[in-house]
Each structure stands twice: as structure tokens, then as C-alpha cells.
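Example complex used in Figure S2.
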Amino acid sequence: MAEQKKLKLGVLTSGGDAPGMNAAIRSVVRTAHHYGIRSYGIKTGYEGLFAGDIEEIDHADVSGIIHRGGTILRTARCAQMMTEEGQKKAAEIIKILRLDAIVIIGGDGSFRGALALSKLGVNVMAIPATIDLDMDCTDYTIGFDTAVNTAADAIIRIRDTSSSHERCSVVEVMGRNSGRLAIMCGLVGGAEEVLIPENPVDTSSVIEQVLHNRSQGKHHNLIVVAEGVGNSNKLAKEIERVLGIEARATVLGHFQRGGTPTARDRMHATIMGYTAVKGIVDDEKSKAVVYRHGKHVLLDIEEATTAKKEYSPRLYDMTKILAI
Ligand code: ATP
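Predicted assembly (324 residues):
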């Protein structure tokens, strides 16, 4: 009897790195191993496809990475993939490599790349991983919890010194064009003002709020600014100039992307990695693994790629209510 052909899957991480990506890679490779599927690691996202930077990885190659930040496959933003010509070339390369499916771990941009490939006949399984939590298709994206914890830890330290010196601290967190990360950081860090791109506020009303809070007995102030708003240094300088109180800006930047993923991120990454490969085993085609209503389920990649997640006005309002 002829030996049954072993399925081959490629796995890549794309876009900004997010803590928990390694746990997802591990889960994909180990689940594939369990089902007799061969795994190929594609390095530096879609870039690696074009460069042919691909290597077989087995269960032993993913030992000791579940708790490591970053991604062992490395990641990149790849301009070539944004063009129709590039997408066709990528699909062609996947065919030449005889990969039966590609697991794509990344944010909404990476999902759009996955959708383009699926339209060219590639079987894709997409896993949402971005610290921004800005994808409408899912209630959770790998990396968000770790990023919030990292920022919250930094904010609490800044609060201590801010409070000792009766300072106004402006802390800028990541999140690209989404305010979701900033709102959560503000809530758990006890910020009195959270500035998000979705709801622009002018500098004079921020200064007015700081003044009001001081008049209510506050000796220090904490303002969280989303990356999409930016200009934290300018804001701090303006507060200092108008109110005559010491104001300092801290931009957390990439500090927020690194570090050991929290148990929550490892849990989602592990279940999502397993669910993606189980989907391939069950002959599902071109899906995304999403977390909805407390369950990890498969959704058509087209549906998963449609909208950006809106910020939550309810949580935003909560930051205002709890400000004083
Ligand atoms: P993060 O949320 O962490 O930034 P992301 O996946 O959204 O992650 P992007 O830079 O937006 O990050 O996208 C990653 C890559 O996905 C891009 O560099 C590009 O290669 C591919 N990509 C983005 N948008 C598209 C698109 N419209 N069509 C095809 N490929 C795309």
C-alpha cells in the first residue's frame, strides 16, 4: 500500500511583534507534529516568502520558547505584499514549495495579506496577534494583556515619583491608531486623563482638567496618551508653561512590546495555535481563529478581515468617572 502523503504547513509571524507569538508558533508546530503534518518556519513574515527563507521545524525546535517574548521566526512589514503582483508571486512561491496551508500570525494588516493569498487559492489559517487589540473580528488578540501589564507596571512606578515630587506625568503608550490599549492602561494605572486618537481633545481642556484636579486636592497628575495622539513632550511643556507645575513626558515605546508573555497571552496563543492546525486537519479552508463570547472559533478569513475594532466608549467614560 502506498504511504499516505504527509501534509506540509508553513508558519510565519508578520507585522509588529507581540508577546505570545512564540507560544503560538510552539502550539502550531506541536499540534502539527501530533497529526503527522510537517511544519516549515518562514522567517521575517512575508519577506521570508519572497526571499525563500524557509526551514523545516520540528517539535524539538520549539522547546523552551513558550515563555519568551518576541518571535523566533522574526517579523517584518513587507511592502511587496501590498501589491497585486507581490501577492501573486507569494502565492506562486507557496505552490512551488508545495505547502498545503499557511498559518499567519499577526495583526489586521497581516490578515489582509492572508485574505489576498486565500483569494489566489492558498489555504490560510490566520491567528490574531497584536498588542493593539484593534481587530473587530475577535474579542482578544495575542499580546494585549502583556502590553497592558508592562505599561501598567511602568505607570505605577512613574506615579510613585510623580506623587513624591507633586509632578504632572504624561505617559505615552503604544497602540498605533487605536486607543484601546491606552484606555486599558489608563484604567488600570489610575490615570485622570486618557487621550485617544478616536476622540481628540484640545490641549487647553487637558490643562483645565489638570488645574481642576489640583483644586480638588490632587498633588500629582497622570495623563496617558495613545501613540496615535503623540506629542507627549509638547503637552508636558505646555502644562508646565501654563500652570507652572513640573510636568514630564515618558514615551514607553518598544519597551511595551518585549518581555515574558503573561499566562493569559500564553493560554490564548496555545489554544489559537492548536485550533488553527486542527482546522487544517478537519479540512477547513481559509479561516481565522477568533475569540468570541468566551470561545475560540474559526471564522471565514474574509469576514475576519472586514472592520477595525472601535474603542469602547463605556471604558473611556469610566476613565473620566474615576479620574477624581
Ligand atoms: P500590528 O497590529 O502589530 O501593527 P499588523 O499585522 O497589522 O500588525 P501591518 O504592518 O499593518 O501590521 O501589516 C503587516 C504586513 O501585512 C504588511 O507589512 C504587509 O506585508 C501585509 N499587509 C498589510 N496590509 C496589506 C494589504 N492590504 N494587502 C496585502 N498585504 C497587506
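The longest helix spans residues 144-164. The first strand starts at residue 8 and ends at 13.
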